[in-house]
């Protein structure tokens, strides 16, 4: 039989082990709380490094009323601006656009484009001011009816590499939206069925006759011809240019071409000769060159134009085979088009101060700098354009432009980083809060402590019972 003293010794030893274990459990739990707090505080600190500027932007068309956006329509815009960046890393401004108020200004075939640009003013970093632009583009795959709603692209952040310590003032400004019609336009044939094309005005004098000859390689195997002096044909189109398609033959003559923009004065007349080849030599007898571009113009500001063709050779044929309308993919040709452009301005104006600090001041290893740029002094004007490889839209273009006002400042590098780059620290809008994480972690730790206490007491009681 075990003596009372022995049992008492084992009990005291069990109580000693229970107390030591409890202290270790509490210490480990406290360490877990501390680590969890650091994680949450680090997350909160990171979240605080981004200022979310949110405002309704009121849109004004370039002409009121406009076919693309009604005057006074609004769109919700959020601009995420980091409040701290590190020398050698990019300042990036991320724009998030709300529901689009824009519609198709006319009926168009597939492949129209929508370009959006968010501009922010930057100042106080050097002598002068500039803009940092975030830009995006989307291609509309389907055909559009007039008034169909237009989706807006995702704007890739404009980026500017900061090269020295200081403070940059950032002020979100305008959102501009531009619509570009599809580039490809089907050629317009001289006829429809066995008659004249009603979109082409075959004027007098003389008779325009249709010649259909499957063995001749004309566009859609037919042409309209007239050999009367001063016979005239007119065609009105919308685009940035046009090509006059006809034949070249020795029995054809000179054609006068006049181009006129609607409500504007006509251009000077141009004479072209359909009896000569494209190199200026005479077309040999019994030779017929088909589907020839006898005259063309391009690079016009997008608009409505009328081309007038007049036969200037008596007893020589003037032939109309087709017209090919051009819509060149150059945004500058559409900038002044009233129905295709709109500017949206914020209802409130706020300025965010961005501190540029040395890398050693970074509170987190995740913000370690990338290799230093070759130049860290600011440049007067630099524009860089890139197209990201992976975006939710067919085409994405980003332009960042910094333009100081003084003539000879120092030189910053400006780059565009569609993805990655400096950590903004912006947390998810619908994620758990920091206090919620602390509370949940604390509850788990306390549960662990209480469970440990109960387990130790049961072990001590078991030891006493065996004695």
Short description:
This protein has 467 residues and is an alpha+beta fold. It is built from two helices and 26 strands. A hairpin with a 5-residue loop joins strand 5 and strand 6.
Structural overview:
The protein has 467 residues and is of the alpha+beta class. The protein is built from two helices and 26 strands. The chain has helices at 4-47, 434-466, and strands at residues 50-61, 74-82, 84-86, 90-97, 112-123, 129-140, 158-161, 166-180, 188-189, 191-192, 195-196, 200-202, 209-212, 222-226, 232-239, 241-249, 254-261, 270-273, 288-297, 303-311, 318-320, 322-326, 341-346, 352-357, 382-386, 398-402. A hairpin with a 2-residue loop joins strand 10 and strand 11 (195-196). Helix 1 runs antiparallel to helix 2. The protein is elongated. The N and C termini lie close together (10 Å). 28% of the residues are buried.
């Amino acid at each position: 039989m075990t003596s009372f003293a022995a049992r008492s010794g084992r009990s005291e030893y069990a109580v000693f082990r229970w107390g030591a274990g409890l202290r270790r459990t509490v210490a480990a739990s406290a360490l877990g709380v501390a680590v969890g707090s650091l994680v949450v505080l680090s997350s909160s600190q990171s979240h605080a490094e981004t200022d979310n500027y949110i405002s309704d932007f009121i849109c004004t068309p370039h002409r009121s009323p406009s076919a693309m956006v009604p005057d006074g329509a609004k769109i919700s815009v959020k601009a995420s601006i980091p409040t701290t960046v590190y020398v050698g890393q990019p300042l990036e401004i991320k724009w998030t656009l709300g529901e689009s108020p824009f519609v198709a200004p006319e009926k168009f075939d597939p492949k129209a484009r929508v370009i959006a640009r968010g501009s922010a003013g930057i100042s106080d970093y050097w002598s002068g001011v500039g803009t940092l632009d975030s830009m995006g583009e989307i291609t509309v795959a389907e055909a559009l009816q007039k008034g169909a709603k237009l989706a807006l692209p995702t704007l890739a952040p404009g980026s500017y590499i900061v090269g020295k310590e200081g403070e940059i003032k950032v002020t979100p400004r305008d959102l501009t939206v531009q619509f570009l019609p599809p580039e490809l336009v089907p050629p317009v044939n001289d006829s429809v069925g066995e008659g004249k094309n009603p979109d082409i005005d075959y004027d007098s004098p003389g008779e325009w006759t249709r010649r259909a000859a499957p063995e001749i390689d004309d566009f859609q195997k037919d042409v309209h011809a007239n050999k009367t002096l001063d016979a005239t044909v007119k065609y009105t189109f919308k685009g940035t240019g046009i090509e006059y398609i006809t034949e070249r033959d020795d029995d054809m003559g000179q054609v006068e071409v006049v181009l006129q923009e609607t409500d504007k004065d006509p251009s000077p007349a141009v004479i072209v000769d359909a009896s000569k080849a494209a190199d200026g030599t005479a077309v040999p007898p019994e030779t017929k060159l088909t589907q020839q571009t006898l005259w063309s113009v391009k690079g016009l500001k997008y608009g409505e134009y009328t081309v007038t063709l007049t036969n200037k050779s008596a007893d020589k044929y003037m032939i109309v085979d087709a017209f090919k309308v051009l819509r060149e993919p150059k945004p500058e040709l559409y900038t002044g088009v009233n129905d295709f452009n709109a500017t949206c301005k914020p209802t409130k104006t706020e300025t965010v101060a961005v501190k540029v600090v040395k890398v050693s001041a970074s509170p987190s290893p995740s913000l370690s700098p990338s290799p230093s740029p070759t130049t860290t002094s600011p440049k007067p004007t630099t524009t860089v354009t890139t197209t990201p490889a992976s975006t939710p839209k067919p085409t994405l273009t980003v332009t960042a432009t910094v333009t100081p006002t003084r003539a000879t400042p120092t030189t910053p590098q400006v780059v565009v980083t569609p993805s990655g780059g400096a950590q903004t620290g912006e947390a998810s809008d619908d994620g758990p809060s920091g206090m919620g994480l602390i509370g949940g972690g604390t509850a788990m730790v306390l549960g662990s402590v209480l469970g440990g206490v109960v387990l130790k007491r049961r072990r001590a009681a078991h030891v006493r019972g065996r004695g």
